[in-house]
Design a protein that fits this description.
- By secondary structure, this protein is of the alpha/beta class.
- The chain has 18 helices and 14 strands.
- The chain folds into two domains: about 15-215 and about 340-405, Rossmann fold; about 230-330, formyl-coa transferase, domain 3 (2-Layer Sandwich), CATH 3.30.1540.10.
- The protein has helices at about 25-35, 65-70, 85-95, 110-115, 120-125, 150-155, 175-200, 210-215, 220-225, 265-270, 275, 285, 290-295, 305-315, 325-330, 330-335, 380-385, 390-400, and strands at about 15-20, 40-45, 60, 65, 75-80, 100-105, 130-135, 205-210, 250, 255-260, 320, 340-345, 350-355, 400-405.
- The strands form four sheets. A seven-stranded mixed β-sheet has the order 8-7-6-1-2-5-14, with helices on both faces. Strands 9-10-11 form a three-stranded antiparallel β-sheet, covered by helices on one side. Strands 3-4 form a two-stranded antiparallel sheet.
- Helix 7 (about 175-200) packs across helix 8 (about 210-215).
- The longest helix is centred in the middle third of the chain and has 24 residues, at about 175-200.
- It is elongated, with a radius of gyration of 25 Å.
- The mean pLDDT is about 90.
- It comes from Candidatus Nanopelagicus hibericus.
Length: about 400
């Protein structure tokens, strides 16, 4: 497993990004811009760095570094700087002059109090693309509330789209609110860059998690807003309250099988069930959902998952297995298409990761750097990029405005 390096420059290789974010939504945006070639400078507090450097999933680490940090901070340089200090602000202001994008996901009002809000930085660099990532946006009664994936899922209404009528609300395990918000931030940034090509002027891009999760439910919400019904949980458990049976997950002899939008007559042929063969209307899958789910729930336990996949594939029914992570990484498709690669680590060795999901034949994404050590690139950035002399750098380090890597 090798890192996805390339001799070709990335599509965004002329772009410099200041990434003043932490946790997940912001860092994934910075990582994706970095994968596409941008020079991403991660701004972190000198003492402990961003949140995920010291807190992760059950303190799981690779070569002494938190895996949750490694996951979403590759292709970045780390600048350890105290944003509350005069010297730290001076460094950021000089960096803004030489940068294209500024990402931040502070609580509402924090960036302005620190003197690094959009209006502050626009005066320094009118072309700056300033991207604010938040839970609920910069206006409205919730703007001061903390935005976190699970909390936003609860607000969004999405937890009542799956399961059975008597089930508790069911959250997603995908961190969808965070990750999709990061992706939407990248889309906004790229659109603003294209606009700047024509106008020469930057702008303020705002992305909030609640808006993104609502956008992910466009079909459900447009249906509710215009026709009235909400996704309706059934008596029988289903994978989505608005999709006709047999959409769901079924126990097999040795595991689990997913079935997508399979026409009921085809399902009838697969299961040799005469009643299912008579349900020829698409709406029958809605009308008889409870009956269908109840009837077929245990019909798949007499064969293995792979046997059912072979049968369903032959019949043209959309299906697949339900993997755990061990199954996933050992799957022949995952191996042959090189989904799992490696990224270097500062403290020795390398960490396995997932390759960038985008492919481009002329300017391919790549993993050029692993996640940086805290302050690993502070002196490099001050000296080479900002052209500060050794005396000035020593002064900033002595005052605590910046710090370098701790071996």
């Amino acid at each position: 497993m090798e890192a996805t390096k390339s001799d070709k420059k990335g599509a965004l290789s002329e772009l410099r990004v200041i990434d003043a974010t932490q946790m997940l939504a912001g860092p994934i945006a910075g990582t994706r811009l970095g994968d596409l070639g941008a020079d991403v400078i991660k701004v972190e507090p000198p003492a402990s760095g961003e949140f995920n450097r010291t807190r992760g999933f059950e303190d799981q680490q690779s070569n002494g570094e938190m895996t949750t940090f490694l996951a979403v901070n590759r292709n970045k340089r780390s600048l350890a700087v105290d944003l509350k200090s005069i010297g730290g602000k001076e460094v950021i202001y000089e960096l803004v002059k030489k940068s294209d994008v500024f990402l931040q996901n502070f609580r509402f009002g924090t960036a302005d109090r620190l003197g690094i809000g959009y209006e502050d930085l626009k005066k320094i660099n009118p072309g700056i693309i300033y991207c604010s990532i938040s839970g609920y946006g910069s206006f409205g009664p919730y703007r001061d509330r903390p935005g976190q994936d699970l909390v936003v899922q609860g607000y969004s209404g999405s937890m009542f789209s799956v399961g059975a009528a008597g089930d508790d609300p069911t959250p997603s395990a995908l961190w969808g609110a965070d990750v999709m918000t990061g992706y939407q931030a990248v889309i906004g940034v790229l659109a603003a860059i294209e606009s700047r090509h024509h106008t020469g002027v930057g702008q303020h891009v705002e992305v909030d998690m609640l808006s993104v999760v609502m956008d992910c439910q466009l079909q459900e919400l447009v249906t509710f807003l215009n026709a009235g019904p909400m996704p309706r949980r059934l008596e029988e458990r289903s994978a989505h309250g608005s999709i006709p049976a047999p959409y769901g997950v079924y126990k097999t002899k040795d595991g689990w099988l997913t079935l997508a939008m399979v026409p009921l007559p085809i399902l009838g042929e697969i299961l040799n069930d005469d009643w299912l063969k008579t349900l020829t209307s698409y709406n029958d899958g809605h009308k008889f959902r409870n009956e269908v789910y109840k009837k077929i729930r245990k019909r798949f336990t007499d064969k293995t998952t792979q046997e059912w996949i072979d049968i369903c594939d032959a019949a043209g029914a959309w299906c697949g297995p339900v993997y755990n992570y061990e199954d996933l990484v050992n799957d022949v498709h995952i191996k042959e298409t090189n989904y799992i690669v490696e990224q270097p680590q500062f403290y020795g060795g390398s960490a396995k990761t997932v390759r960038p999901p985008i492919r481009m034949n002329q300017t391919p994404p790549s993993i050029r750097r692993g996640a940086p050590a805290l302050g690993e690139h502070t002196q490099e950035i001050l000296s080479n990029l900002l052209e500060m002399n050794a005396e000035k750098i020593t002064q900033l380090i002595s005052s605590g405005a910046v710090s370098g890597v701790k071996e």
